[in-house]
Amino acid sequence: MKQFEYVKKEDTFQKNYSLEELDFAKTKILKYISFKKRTENEIRLKFNKVIEEELLDDAIEELKENGYINDNNYIKRAVNEFMALKNLSIKEIKYKLMAKGLSKSLIDDYISNHIEELSDYELQSAKSIAIKKSNLEKEEIKNYLMKKGYKTESIEEACRINETD
């Protein structure tokens, strides 16, 4: 088998795998991500025992360069999906994304760049929860929303709206 050569600016060295092995690894990863978008961390966790580390690193790097793996796009998609389907606080969104192995800095950057939209969403979510739980005392609703990580302003506004209904 022909060995894969990787040329770095300052030196050249041999990889411990063939081009066929690299193609096989990329194909396995592409099949895995074709069903559902995945984070780089999810891919690493799935394949770290079946694909040698150096080969996995290079396969992931090549797929990232070609746009198949992009954690920024994953965050954007996941947040849009959460906003369409669930009532979550910004803090809950952040924790869900961190559970997928995304870096805190990427998540924080996304949140800070979309804070107005996310704050509006959080307020609407708090209002929706307050309406659903309108049979509870105001303090119970506040405590529930606080435990879920909603901002104090969102909680107050949601409870104020609920009182006027």
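Above is the first protein from milestone M3; the second protein from the same milestone is given next.
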Amino acid sequence: MFIKDIIKKYAFVISMGFLIFYIDSLEFVDDMVTKMLILGLAVFKSFYFVFQSFKKIIEAAKEDVAYHNFLAFMAINISIIILSFGIDFLCLHHVDPSTFTGIPENLSFPRRTFELIYFSILNFSNFGFGDIVPVSMIAKVIITLEIIISFMAIIFILSDFISLKESFMENNFSFSFKKTKGERKAEKDKEENE
């Protein structure tokens, strides 16, 4: 299965979030620049997660992956996305503690990390109890990205994976953009003649 490969790729992307802590510790970078770096990284990661997820779903459909393996992939994928956004929130809070309300100032780093990953879990699951509230525009944009990804993940899980696989197979859907329309028509004609 491709789960180890996914974890390696996503670990690299998530580790980029910790780069923000280093940039912030240099103290010669303006807080607004650091916040924009966090936002840019969050946007990049969001597109990366969506692209990789869609690519893996298509591969799973073509390789006739068992449904429980698909669910394992989605569970790992969702966990990594939640962790990634939790790190983004942690970076934002580290740069500017007024980004969120509801987080006491005297919390230790591990406790603050827990609080912001908890916040990410609530956002992803669409619960949002309201104990932590984003104040800045950048925080609201990053939360919006997480909610959009959450919605897309739920659609993939709730849609019947078997139907999704059949749909891809019937339409001979390929993630490869190399085939021309004529090549796809020739393949389809060949299949019909057999």
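Note on the second protein: The first strand starts at residue 100 and ends at 101.
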